[in-house]
Amino acid sequence: MKKVIGAVLAGTMVAGLAFADPKITFQYRLRSNMYDQTQTYRGDGSSSTNKTTDLFALNGYGGNGDTMVATVSNDYAGFSIDYDATTGGVKKGSSTSDTSFTMDALYAWLNFGALKFTAGSFDARYTDKLTNGATNVNLTDKESYKLGVWTGLQSGTSNVATLIYGSKVLYGYDADNMGAISSDNTGITSFSADYTVKDVLPGKLMMKAVLNSNQFSVDTSDGTDKKYQDSGYGFEVGYLTPNVADLDFVLRMPEQKVTVFGAYGTLLVVKNLKAVLGFTYVNDSYDGSGDVTSDMHNGTSTKNTEYAFDARAQYAFSDKLTGIAHFNYSSIKPDGEDAETGMYIVGDVYYVVNDLITPEFSAGYYMTDLDDNDSADVCENYYVINPSVKFTAGPNAFLSVGVRYQGAANTGDAKTTTQTKSEISIPTVFRVTL
Hints:
Distance between the termini: 19 Å
Structural class: mainly beta
Order of helices and strands: HEEEEEEEEHEEEEEEEEEEEEEE
Shape: globular
Largest sheet: 20 strands, antiparallel
Helix content: under 10%
Mean pLDDT: 82
Low-confidence stretches: none
């Protein structure tokens, strides 16, 4: 790790001699659970473990990680590299360290006036997700982070995405991210071109086209001849009318038989209010036949349709008091089966008392099996209450502590599986950015 960081710093210093505006950012974030107790439930009373308590899990709240971001740019080009490191710690009930070191983003860009090209591994979202909580120990930063189809939908005790794709991934989650293939797309390479029109229309128009590295199609139907396409593609149009609205339309084909459409709008009419409305639709027509094209399409039918409605709002009541609300309704219909639906509602409010203290309160209700077409009560609907407080040492340097309680809203039918009835934890976040 030290050699890699040293090499990156050396390269950045050399590049800084040629670029007008070098910028280097270091960040360390430790996300821990100082206390966590989970109580499980089985309706037949046969569970051998009713409570599990874990103390001082330094990687227990999403894992600890130090992030180094180095960016160098001038008026016509730039380069950015972002490395994440999980610096050790053991998992619950294990003595095995989970140390890892991964590249989170590596990309460069160049401009020809209003035309911009970007290449590498990066996220590219146009619409604000409105996840700007204060403490980093809140529900809008964790539970409902991204727009699109919710990956938490269940059918009975099984995750719907896992039933279809074999893992908890969906094309419709984070669908507006033009640097992504699905909700599990770590390390892919993308190449995008976007053109921005200013001072011609009443607002600002942005048009983008992108290629995402992914085995889009394989065709061996001509005997000895083979045809491959090794990238999916997508298009995006954004249009901003200042103090009125910011619109975003996305059309993507990450694979040959998958179409993703998204329409998102940010309302800017009311002072101090940002409101986001979104619709996401996915059609996966892969029936399991033909040549294998990807890990998600591996010879088993994944035919399904997905859609989601998002509604979010952030309102600054004053310079000190801010409120945030998230709503999502999602549906996934596997081919030939009933649709599985779910929804969540999350609220968050924080108040800046002074330069040192910022308290925050989050609460959410999550229905992972809203349709309940299996007529089972197996802890699939739950609520979360999450107060927290941030102690700020200075700009971008703080320590946050919270209490998180999750309780099941329905029990009784979990006869053959063990489900989470309740969980209480004390998450903490230590974060320094320089």
